Amino acid sequence: EQLVAAEQAVMASTGGAAWCQLQRDGRVTGGVKYDEGRLAALMGARRRLRAADPSSWSQVLADELQQWQRALTEVHAQPKPAMPWLAYRQGGVDALTALQEAVAGETVS
Asked: Phi/psi of residue 72, each to 5°?
């Protein structure tokens, strides 16, 4: 569900235009990069989860989130962080955090 929502957000924020065209035109905004980060993180998590043993899914998801959090921290540590990269990394962290919370809620119920 979250992957579909991220895909729809990317389509809404890009108007269906190709990423390279948006960048060439100078139309890449923090909103586009945030949505792109969400989508990239969820697609990466899906790829890793498909290859993992189901009993290790919570650890795989935690590792993926930790990787995105480290990358966000690295961007923040730069003397002059680029806003598109901040938005991209924050989108990934937010998406994976929401996914982790949703999965935890399902196992508790």
From this structure: -65, -40
